[in-house]
Structures
1.
Amino acid sequence: MTVIAGVDVGGANTKISIINSDYKTQSVSFYFPFWKRKLTDYPKIFLSYLKKLSPINRIGFFTITMTAELCDIFKTKREGVLKIIELFSSILPVDKLFFYTVDGNYVNVSKAVQNPVKLAASNWVATGAFFSELLPDSLIIDMGSTTTDLIIVKDRVVYSKGSTDLKRLLNGELYYTGLLRTPLCALTNRLSFNNKEYSLAAELFAITADVHLILGNINQNQYTCDTPDNGEKTIEASYRRLSRMLCSDVEELSKQDLFKIAKVFERIQFNTVKRGVNKLLNTHLQLQNKPVILTGIGRKWLYKMFKASRLNLSFKLSDELIKKDVSDLTPAYAIAYLFNKKLRDIVE
């Protein structure tokens, strides 16, 4: 029985999914901010989490996708990809190691280093390719801790006007807004509440995790990233951080006021995604009556918000199609699943 590991190496979080030939899975995720930690710390931490899922010698193949190459510890994305290839080549059997490309292919280490840019930000392609196996036409919304991907599948083919992050930002297929790590000052520089409009501090005082914790969209255990002030991950602490966005504090602003402010930020963030969805569906009219799949750690919040907005679209949680723990880290599962399918097709 072949066991395959899928690894999605993000700048903040690494996700690992183990799948066997019967498609039984185990998954885990861990926080490793590449821009803060030493690269030399990564191998030991990665292996400790991998071993929680399976002994390494029982894993037949290791498949890797990444977005961590964008971290500013690397001078270029090319350098970032090459460093990540080097990291995994130093800790895993090279003959069993394959990297996923934006073309939807798997390449070995020698080919990966020849064209490293092809590996940059490839995880959304895997997500689209996986769901294309289940539904021929769909719009997929994958919200993670940091970004939201809007992925188009038409006739079981992943469609995009451009494969790089730069082009996807231009074409409205990638939004730098996530459930946890987005600075609130990146959402807007002005905010209205109690019939008054306020300018906001352009400081890293609070992040979307604070808003979602206050509103009950996440719990303390789901606040998995660092806090802006290195403080506690409690609702009280989130209120304090949020108050600073208006250059204030919890003595000047009441919890009732701050709850209202959190709701305003929530609406602003949701509207960013909603506008993106409307833009793509107005371009791809044939998808307007097709399923909109919500996946990633932000899927349940998005589902709630979309349902409340009463858009005439068919929203479907990925939990209806795949396991809950897999829905939290879809790209990692997808690259393992797709590789496993390739092996089965070869055998058959």
Note: The longest helix spans residues 255-283.
2.
Amino acid sequence: MHLRRVIPSEIRERMKDLPNRCIIHLGGGLPDPALFPVAAFAEACAAIFADPGEARIALPYAPSEGHASLRDWLAEKMGALGAPCRAPNILVTNGSQQALDLMAKLLIDRGDMVMVEMPSFIGALRTFDMYEPHYVGVPTDNAGWAAAAPARFRYAGRISVTPPARR
């Protein structure tokens, strides 16, 4: 990975225009502030800060893999959903971009084929660009990419990017 290949984030550059109302943002990551549960959040914070023991746990940085109690809860929840796992198998990230970057670091080598739906999530593509993959755009229909893709595309490559609407 060479820094000269780093290009500005298209998402971040477009986000700069949001305060000016130049664009209407239809992507994720910017929910309507009117929908934030401000009262519930304030109540939860008050409860945590009222207990010095809880405040000492809540305020410092979490371990890199995430709080143990959260990972335990997630493992239990996954098991209840039919996907049994244990807390050591769970890594809590700070968002989708961090998860995509970690996945790319593990799975993409220069020149690897990465299959992507067309159109695809620009945030994933820009993250993957750092690892210099070869993208293969896969056409879609109402059934999703697997049904529309030629058989030779279905199981090639180590990563596929599919927008959330089709998962």
Note: Residues 153-157, 162-167 have pLDDT under 50 and may be disordered.
3.
Amino acid sequence: MKTLAFGAFALAMLAGSAAAAQTPNMGPAIPGVCVYHHDRLMAQSTAGQSLVAGIQRLSQEVATELAPYEQFIQTEGQSLQQGQASIPQDQLQQRARDLETKYREFETLRQTRSGELRYTLAYQQQQIAQAANPIVEALYTERGCGILLSADAVLRANPQMDLTEAAVQRLNTALPSLPAFSRMAVPAQQAE
């Protein structure tokens, strides 16, 4: 009987310590101090998710556009390598120059499309941030925040101090998704 009681006590202690390890003591919420995690808002909001889907779609379009270049470069490179002994030297040199030209075209196009994707992503992120800023400001006022900390700069905080979930919910209502968007050309001043 003593062994059973001791076993039950040990099991209760282990369960209690496991529960304590899973939910660390965050301490009390500090009045006037709030935390906001912008990256989490971008990841969890429906607008952020539509941004990810749009960028994936555009990336696939770019990959499809670049695929013929890559295929030609790979095939022609292998052909030239295998035909070094059988192709006349002047033809071999001309084909090598043509291959080099095609490779430069490919690299230029790849860099241009990559820049366009980066610019489009930054622009669309800015659109979401512009929609989120007034929401975060309203939550700051409603919750009586005296200071707003970026969650990136905070190791751990009491969840009651976090504005992010409420911001995500309000952003989902205000901006359920981004309007359909296409790849944007990088403005000349930024391209340099």
Note: DSSP finds six helices and two strands in the chain.
4.
Amino acid sequence: MKNYIKETVNLSIGAEVVLKGWVHVYRRMGKLGFIELRDSTGIVQVVCVPNEMTIGADILDNVRPEFVVSVKGVIQERGEKQKREDQLTGKIEILAKELEIISESATPPFEINNEDRQANEELRLKYRYLDLRHERMANNIKLRHKIIHFFRNYLSDKDFTEIQTPILSKSTPEGARDYLVPSRLHPGQFFALPQAPQQYKQLLMVAGFERYFQIAPCFRDEDARADRSPGEFYQLDMEMSFVKQEDILNLVEGMITAMVEKLFPEKHFLAKPWPRLNYDDVMAKYNSDKPDLRKDKNDPNELAFAWVLNFPLFMKQTEEDMFVGAGKVWGPSHNMFTAPKEEDIQFLDTDPGKVKSYQHDMILNGFEVGGGAVRIHDSKLQEKIWDLIGFTEEQKQQFKHYISAFSYGVPPHGGIAPGLDRLLMVLLGEKSLKEAIAFPLTSDGRDPMMESPSAVTQDQLDELNLALKK
């Protein structure tokens, strides 16, 4: 059984260890060899003195960076001038007794031990498994795990139930283009990958679970931006029954605040509790519904969280802001399931643009990092909203399962879905979502590593009863 490098600092001088990992840096000084050995927990210096070694002295000339090696040795204290206070293992080193090359490495296409000499994005993504060896990228992915772990424990302690919803679902007009999956067993029929688990989580409220969450993959065929990944993204999907909007905001604000204080102690909040901002006010003042409220934009540790509330229920359809599936006049500001303010329901027939909603957006340093709403739980009101956004009868029929469920007793409910990729990107101070995702696509929706999307065989197409246009 190997020892992890981080464990060596807690062992006594003279303790024997077995370490396995990658050669981060290798240098020779005469007959001596110095290996900076890297594993998933850190880096430690290994000193190879031929006269001290019982196995492996004869292969010292063969060792190269990124070789996978096994080292058996003893912990010794570094000399005073060689100690590195800025490193976890900077006060010790390993005197090698045995050295074995487990596997060799070709010369990497870019440097692993010096990320300052940055490769271009295409090369990084083609060799993403090497890019993830960079300390910064590895730390980003580990922090992503810690955030998810924190959320999972926090919500479980609040009596939430984690439930996985289907990936193969139904194509319904929900605002973006669907990814379609042809059915072999039902020729001419298609599944769709979910743009979000929106309908499922509301149906779970009908089912009586009351408090639900999942780390949900979402699939939308839309163009990329620096803060939007093409293809898929992940969100902390949440829904609750018998809640008011204020209940949702308080729970999520408490959870995010606690997570930041635990995992990012160097960060500081501009304001606690978070400001509650009115949509019309921020649009008038900033011409944006996600303003950057930081006092010092150059301070990487300043966090300006806020809530934006009182959104309009509908937005005019434009080429720049088009809700796919809705008519040409009105589209939902958030989604078609968002509840209007009770006091504004009277304007639905006469002045729909005047109606405000129970939508809530969570913003941070100029980014929307989460959004949700109190939902409609009345089927007649839901159908009226569909009429106002121009749904045809055929489109309404695509939701007959949903309306049917609403005839069996529906609790008032609402939720939110913080975006994990974007939230992590902002907290890390990264400029692109790709730095917060293990295997992202390029901006034009490709995976250079897997070389996808790719062609398929004619046999596969025939089996699915598909023909390609020429």
Note: The longest strand covers residues 16-29.
